[in-house]
Design brief:
Layout: E1 12-16, E2 21-23, H1 24-35, E3 44-49, H2 53-64, E4 68-73, H3 78-88, E5 92-95, E6 105-111, E7 114-119, E8 131-136, E9 146-150, H4 151-165, E10 172-174, H5 182-193, E11 197-200, H6 208-216, E12 221-224, H7 226-235, E13 247-250, H8 257-269, E14 273-278, E15 288-290, E16 304-305, E17 310-314, E18 328-333, E19 340-342, E20 357-366, E21 372-377, E22 381-384, E23 387-390, H9 391-400, E24 405-409, E25 414-419, H10 426-437, E26 444-449, H11 462-467
Parallel strand pairs: 1-11, 3-4, 3-5, 10-11, 12-13, 13-14, 25-26
Antiparallel strand pairs: 1-2, 5-7, 6-7, 8-9, 9-19, 14-15, 15-16, 17-18, 18-20, 20-21, 22-23, 24-25
Helix pairs in contact: 1-2, 4-5
C-alpha cells in the first residue's frame, strides 16, 4: 500500500530519535514479519501507540493484512480505553506494556517494547469488506464515535497531498503531531508512499531536543496546527535552527491573520514555502490548500480544492450557490471522503453512507477567483434573546482588538475566554462586544485565563475550558 513500488529499497524510511535507522527494505521486511502475528480473517486491532517504529510497523501491517486498526494514544485514560474495548470488542490490542491488564486477553507476541494481546474467546464481529481504518473524531480519543475509512480513502488522499506539496524521495518530515490524528497520520502516509523519510519523535517543539533532531537529520518539512505556530512565535521564529527546512504546513484550525503574516514573512525570507490547509478526519485528512504564492493577498482563505477533489457551497435547502461572496455550507467531494461514522459495533458492517460527498458543517464563501473562505460553523452558533450569534465571529472581533480568545456559550450567556493581557479592560471589552452584537452586557462574561487547555493534537479542549468558567 504505502511502502510498495518504491524504487530504492536501500534508502532511509524511518529514523528514531535514538539514532536507529530503518531502510525501506528493513521496513518492508518488518511489516511482512509482523503480519504473521495476525490470523487470516478480518479483525479489529487496537493500536495504543505513539510516534515510534513499532507503532508504524503495526499500523502498516494491520492495514496490509486486511485487519482494521483503531489508532489510539498511550496517554488515553484507562476508563475511556476500557469503554472502547467494551463497545467494539477488538480481537487484538497492541500496547507498550509488559504485564497483561486485560482478563479476557492473552499475551501472544512481543515486538521490541510492545506487546500484542489476543482475546481468548472472540465474538464473530461482522466488518465491512472495504473497512480499513478507524480514527477518532477530532480530539475525542475516549468517544465511541469513529470515522470509517477505506484503503481507497487513504491512498487517494496521500496521492493528492503528495502532488500539491510536491513530496518526493528527497523529503524528510519530523513527527510534530500525534500519529493517530488524521493530520499527523497524513504526514506519515504521504512520505512513506513517496519514498521520503520520517524522523520519529514524541518530543514537543517546546523541547530543545525536537529542534536538535531537525538540525541533526536535516529535516526538510514541518507540519503544525495553530498552537504549534503560536509556540514558534513565542520561542522566536528567527532563533530556530531550520536551515534544512524547505516547506512548512499548517492545518487543524484557523491561525490568526497577524500571526500568519509574521510566520510567512520570516519563512519567505528563508525561501521556505508555507502552505495553509483545510481538512477534516471525515475526509481522511485534507480537502483544500492555499498555495504559498497566494498567502500575502488571501491570508484568510483556505484556498482551492486538493487535486481530484471538488468544493462548492449550498444554501439551507441544499441548492448550489453560484454567486461569489454568498455564504452557505461548504460541501466537498472526492475519493478521500470516508464511509461515515461508527458509534457502536454494529455500525462496523455498514457500507458507504457518504457516497463520496461530505457536508462539512462549516459556513463558507468563495471569491471571484474561486478561492474559499471559512466564515464559521453551523455548530458554533448560540441563540440569545432571539438573536443568532456566531461564536467564530465573536472571536474575530476580539482578535481585531489585539487579544487571543475562545468564545463559548448557550441560550443564557456568552463566555469569552481570553488570555490575560496588560491592556485588557474587561468592562470596556464587554461593552464593546455588547454594542457590536446588540446583546445586553449582562449576558456576556469575560473569563481571563493564562493559557487555553489543549488536546493532544493541539486543538482547544472545549470541555475542560467550560469547566474553568
Amino acid at each position: 500500500m504505502f511502502i510498495s513500488n518504491i524504487g530504492n529499497l536501500d534508502s532511509i524510511a524511518l529514523i528514531e530519535d535514538n539514532s536507529s535507522v530503518l531502510t525501506y527494505f528493513d521496513l518492508d521486511q518488518q511489516v511482512r514479519d509482523f503480519s504473521n502475528f495476525f490470523d487470516y480473517k478480518k479483525h479489529l486491532v487496537f493500536i495504543i501507540g505513539e510516534n515510534d517504529v513499532e507503532t508504524i510497523v503495526c499500523y502498516l501491517s494491520a492495514v496490509e493484512s486486511g485487519m482494521v486498526p483503531i489508532l489510539l494514544v498511550t496517554k488515553i485514560n484507562q476508563n475511556q480505553l476500557n469503554n472502547l474495548i467494551n463497545i467494539y470488542k477488538p480481537k487484538y490490542i497492541f500496547q507498550k506494556i509488559d504485564s497483561n491488564p486485560y482478563g479476557e486477553f492473552n499475551l501472544t507476541s512481543k515486538y521490541e517494547r510492545y506487546s500484542l494481546f489476543q482475546r481468548d474467546k472472540h465474538e464473530n464481529i461482522r466488518l465491512h469488506p472495504e473497512l480499513a481504518l478507524l480514527l477518532t473524531t477530532s480530539g475525542s480519543t475516549g468517544s465511541p464515535k469513529l470515522v470509517r475509512l477505506t484503503k481507497k480513502n487513504l491512498i487517494s488522499n496521500a496521492k493528492s497531498i503528495s502532488k500539491y506539496l510536491d513530496i518526493n524521495s528527497d523529503d524528510r518530515a519530523i513527527t510534530s503531531l500525534p500519529y493517530n490524528y488524521s493530520y499527523g497520520l497524513s504526514v506519515i502516509n504521504t512520505h512513506l508512499s513517496s519514498g521520503g523519510s520520517l524522523v520519529l519523535t514524541n518530543a514537543s517543539m517546546m523541547e530543545g531536543n525536537f529542534w536538535r533532531l531537525v538540525k541533526k537529520y536535516s529535516v526538510t518539512s514541518f507540519a503544525g496546527v495553530p498552537y504549534n505556530y503560536e509556540m514558534i512565535l513565542r520561542l522566536g521564529v528567527d532563533k530556530l535552527e531550520i536551515s534544512s527546512i524547505n516547506k512548512m504546513t499548517q492545518a487543524g484550525g484557523r491561525l490568526d491573520f497577524n500571526k500568519i503574516e509574521k510566520i510567512n514573512n520570516f519563512l519567505k525570507s528563508k525561501n521556505i514555502k508555507f502552505y495553509i490547509m483545510y481538512g477534516q478526519t471525515e475526509a481522511t485528512a485534507r480537502m483544500s490548500y492555499l498555495p504559498p504564492k497566494d498567502i500575502e493577498r488571501k491570508p484568510d482563505s483556505i484556498g482551492l480544492a486538493i487535486p481530484n477533489g471538488k468544493l462548492w457551497i449550498e444554501d439551507s435547502k441544499g441548492h448550489i450557490i453560484e454567486q461569489s461572496e454568498s455564504v452557505g455550507e461548504l460541501i466537498y467531494s472526492g475519493e478521500n471522503v470516508s464511509m461515515g461514522y461508527a458509534r457502536s459495533i454494529i455500525d462496523l458492517e455498514l457500507g458507504d453512507k457518504n457516497d463520496g460527498i461530505l457536508k462539512t458543517g462549516d459556513l463558507a464563501r468563495f471569491d471571484s477567483e474561486g478561492y474559499f473562505f471559512i466564515e464559521g460553523s453551523n455548530n458554533r452558533f448560540v441563540k440569545l434573546f432571539g438573536n443568532r450569534i456566531s461564536l467564530d465571529s465573536l472571536e474575530k472581533i476580539v482578535s481585531n482588538k489585539g487579544f487571543e480568545s475562545v468564545a463559548t456559550g448557550d441560550d443564557k450567556k456568552i463566555v469569552i475566554h481570553i488570555i490575560n493581557h496588560p491592556n485588557l479592560s474587561q468592562d470596556s471589552l464587554r461593552s464593546e462586544i455588547s454594542e457590536v452584537i446588540g446583546i445586553n452586557h449582562v449576558a456576556i462574561k469575560i473569563n481571563v485565563i493564562s493559557e487555553f487547555p489543549r488536546l493532544d493534537n493541539g486543538k482547544i479542549d472545549y470541555k475542560l475550558l467550560n469547566k474553568s468558567k
